Amino acid sequence: MKRILILGSGYISGCLVHFLTRVCATTQKYLVTVASVVPKELEDLATQFTNLQTVVINVKEDAEALHDLVGKCDLVVSLLPNDMHLPRLFMYKAAKACIDLRVNMLHASYNSDELIALNDDARQNGVLILGELGLDPGIDHLLAMKCIHEIQEQKGKIVSFVSYCGGLPAPECSGDNYLRYKFSWAPKTALGNLLNGARFLENKSVVEIPRGGGILDETKQLHFLPELGLEGYPNRDSLVYLEKYGLSPHIRTLIRGTLRYTEFSKRVKTLIKVGLLSDDAVDFLDPDVNQAPLTWREFIASLLHINLSTGNNDANSAFRTVLSPTEIETLTSLGLLEDTAVPKVGTPLTALANHLEGMLQFKNGEQDVVILHHELEAKYPMLSSHESVCGRKEFREIDFIVYGDPLQSNRDSNFNQPINRTPTTTPHAYSAMAKTVAYTLGIGAEMMLNGEIKQVGVILPLTRDIYLPILERLAHYGLFAIERILNE
């Protein structure tokens, strides 16, 4: 029986364990262990999956325990958040342990420069570290490469590639909060990503945006699925995919972005302006400091250097000196001007994530939706008149849309917990975000354990031997894209 070690017990892990032990268990039997620093999440998982092994481990510090766990398994799957993918923290240590012990690993996050630097060591030891195999990044790569290779096989050249992806509440479930957003994955990571920088190519001009929230100033109204009212802003460095996707350096436009409902960017800028997305430690948020917690109202005032005692009978008059009515409305609607205590969890970002996780969660009967949209423009060379492609332009659109299962009243806010349904329906149900990430990882895990992927080193899922089987198997589970081709 093959042994799989899953690192992390957050939003996706329950669905991944479900896939590995129940969905694909008809052909394979896996012994799965989940290691995490959060005992409560491990207890919840152990209650749901009786054959699951769990281990409490401080993944950042306990190198000996990590080495021992990796040495006992056949494959490691990392579900750790992006902010841990640094050399001094666990993801890098996990990759190093896997390389030293000759154990393959896969994960759903972006490959860091530090991980890429391990490529030679991994190749030398015959180890495969397969990264960016979730939804975004992940399924976006698989669909892009399939389309790009099809065009290139017909001697076409990509002149424009635009891609947007987002996990959202279903439209009918999005109107009960000011951001029209709810968390279907790690709240702190989702919020922290708003401060990322970005780089992209638009009409042959390179646009570079430094860290700090400037990506929201590049938000565009999007015209596909117009009934939904979507907007998008750039996501990280799109230009690295010129080489990775095998695109021509003469391409006109290359943008990868994040999807949200209209007005999200405008409203969330308020949180950045106030300083709530800072991940720097603050003394009065330190749980070890013997000081009474501030209220959210006091905390916001301190961040803005406002003296609340100067206000009149109007509760928000002091804030109007530095905030617009729209900004005050945003803070008020999110409960950030109330006299409730701020959790003492170290940093403003962590406190905000904890606060909003409770507020922006899915209610009974609600569901999420994942939307991934690619637009490609290609040009073909002039060929002889009898050729099927003769100096033409081609436009392709790819839509990958998945709805999650409705939340049931007996399911708490922990997305690890499956929904208990009536005997006539599926016994386990998960969010669209959990399904798309976990099923993609699970299929990748199967392929690696079966020896279907012959490559070694630190790689991405960009070759036919990887993306075609995964897309075919995702379709078997009802996760597939619709493609449209228009010729000019």
From TrEMBL:
Name the UniProt record assigns to this protein: Alpha-aminoadipic semialdehyde synthase, mitochondrial
GO molecular function term, any single one: saccharopine dehydrogenase activity
Keyword flag Nuclease: no
One Pfam family in the UniProt entry: Sacchrp_dh_NADP
Keyword tags: NADP, Oxidoreductase
A biological process term (GO) from this entry: lysine biosynthetic process via aminoadipic acid
GO CC, any one term: cytoplasm
This protein's record includes keyword Oxidoreductase: yes
Saccharopine dehydrogenase-like C-terminal domain residues: 134-478
Domain Saccharopine dehydrogenase NADP binding residue range list: 4-129
InterPro entries the record matches: AASS, NAD(P)-bd_dom_sf, Sacchrp_dh-like_C, Sacchrp_dh_NADP-bd
